[in-house]
Design a protein that fits this description.
alpha+beta, D-amino Acid Aminotransferase, Chain A, domain 1, eight-stranded antiparallel beta sheet, four-stranded parallel beta sheet, globular
Length: 507
């Protein structure tokens, strides 16, 4: 049965049809998990139903279905509403989930194009004209200047300036980072500074001197490479330039080439010196910036495998910022080995990378765990120095600093009707030190495990309650009915009516 809504046309009421989710019974968490608050995702292993076991013989059933397939109806299926506002949802990155959550708001109808709508959900804001954000006319899910913290080189520059003003040491919470602009007039000097630091670190026999080469504007592990040898770095820079040329359809030309030669001390050479040499095409306006970041060589491991944290942070349309109370761990499919730099499955824990490994989901569904799973592991290991509560406290401290470092730029929005959900990535070493790795716009919202099938819909729905529900307010009766049907996004251990976004401050 379709959800029926009413619209007014020429003083007549006409029914319209809204989309609905497939009528497939919802799968709930195992009985009794609500007693422990946030459910333990490891308990899902080995507890498939008989029906699922039969299905598993017919194909690969490792990855659970998304909640878009599982949840049967919008929250207002028993009610009739007038569509007051129109939304457009771009496909990609589980846009179906966003669409389903918005369809649950009876005062919103969907349109297949972004022209003349009230709310736009897009993967990025490239090409978007922010001058169109007039009073209660249209809202978009990206801040105009989000790249001040979501772009790696801009985040580094803002944090560096902030630490200089506040007498803080950025190396205490961000791995040592060098920003290299291959089209800069100071390129020779910038490369020399990195090489000198690289050679100095190499003297420490306890370290392998491993580094990451990252594009500044990509996420989900795209374009990241590892190196511990300067000659390997030269090859990686060459590949980086070729990739940028292809992406921007720029033909390289040797007529505008520039050769750089960097000499550095090397004890293994007969002369006591060595050098690296590489040639760059000097085509203008390529925006060829790369990030060289020190790799964390002694991470805290979970059963011998590397992991990092994904945390969500919301900046709403009034420049208030929030911390979502439940994040998750992303784990590698292979055991940690600092001597093996060829396998990215060891070192990059992004789901976009790990899902391509043959042992993906071997240890945990989706290679993901909750904070409670981590705390139980730490307790089993008798590690009293590190706690999940202490980790969250440190995360909030670093989030404050990342917001403060670019606060004036983030506030510099031409219109009010915009917000952003950021994906923060943190790591912790075996001494309990927390490190900020990067901040992502358009974080992955794929429901790739039972854990994320719970967290992500609630995270998005609560974010909409703080933003578009306030910008485009429904009728009072609709709002009351909406609050009474929040069981669609319930999380064990939390009230359905609570908003799980924890207020942190005002920019």
């Amino acid at each position: 049965m379709f959800l029926q809504a009413i619209k007014v046309k020429d003083c007549r009421l006409e029914p319209i049809q809204l989309k609905y989710s497939p009528q497939v019974p919802r799968q709930h968490t195992p009985e009794g998990l609500s007693k422990i608050g946030m459910f333990n995702s490891t308990l899902f292993q080995g507890k498939k139903s008989v029906e699922k076991k039969k299905q598993s013989t017919q194909g690969d059933q490792r990855r659970p279905q998304s909640s878009f397939q599982r949840i049967t109806k919008p929250a207002f299926f028993k009610n009739v509403f007038t569509v007051q506002y129109i939304f457009f949802c771009e496909n990609g990155n589980n846009g179906n989930l966003v669409r389903r959550i918005l369809q649950g708001r009876g005062w919103f109808g969907e349109q297949q194009t972004s022209y003349n709508v009230n709310f736009i959900w897009r993967q990025s804001n490239k090409g978007f004209n922010y001058s169109t954000l007039t009073s209660k006319n249209v809202c978009i899910n990206h801040l105009e200047h989000h790249n001040e913290i979501s772009n790696k080189n801009k985040l580094h520059a803002n944090l560096k300036s902030y630490c200089q003003r506040t007498n803080k040491n950025m190396d205490d919470f961000v791995p040592t980072t060098f920003i290299i602009n291959l089209d800069s007039t100071t390129l020779q000097n910038d490369i020399k500074k990195f090489v000198d630091y690289f050679v100095e670190i190499k003297k420490d026999k306890l370290l392998k001197n491993v580094w990451l080469l990252k594009p500044p504007d990509l996420n989900r592990g795209r374009g990241i490479q590892l190196f511990s040898d300067l000659k390997v770095l030269v090859n990686q820079i060459d590949e980086f330039c070729k990739t940028r040329n292809v992406n921007k359809q720029i033909m390289s030309t040797s007529k505008a080439a520039k050769t750089l030669i960097i000499t550095y001390p090397e004890s293994n050479e007969k002369t006591g010196q060595a050098q690296i040499e590489f040639t760059l095409d000097q085509t203008p306006n390529q925006d060829r910036i790369l990030v060289l970041q020190k790799y964390l060589e002694t991470p805290l491991l979970y059963n011998g495998r590397k992991f990092d944290f994904r945390i969500w942070v919301l900046i709403d349309h009034t420049c208030k910022y929030y911390f979502f109370k439940e994040g998750y761990l992303r784990l590698a499919s292979e055991h940690f080995d600092i001597n093996n730099l060829k396998s990215l499955f060891i070192h990059l824990t992004n789901n976009a990378v790990q899902k391509n490994h043959p042992h993906y989901c071997k240890y945990e569904l989706g290679n993901q765990l909750s904070f409670q799973d981590l705390q139980q592991y730490l307790t089993q290991q008798k590690n009293t120095k590190i706690t999940s509560v202490g980790i969250v406290t440190k995360m909030k401290e670093l989030i404050h600093q990342t917001i403060f470092c670019a606060s004036s730029k983030l506030r510099n929005n031409r219109k009010d009707y915009q917000f952003e959900i950021f994906g923060y990535d943190f790591m912790i070493d075996n001494n309990g030190n927390l490190w900020l790795i990067e901040i992502n716009t358009n974080p992955c919202i794929e429901e790739s495990s039972p854990l994320l099938q719970k967290l992500i819909p609630r995270m998005l729905n609560d974010a909409f309650r703080l933003t578009i529900d306030k910008i485009f307010s429904p009728f009072k009766t609709s709002q009351e009915n909406f609050l009474n049907n929040l069981h669609e996004f319930s999380i064990p251990g939390y009230s359905d009516k609570d908003n799980l976004w924890d207020y942190m401050g005002q920019i």
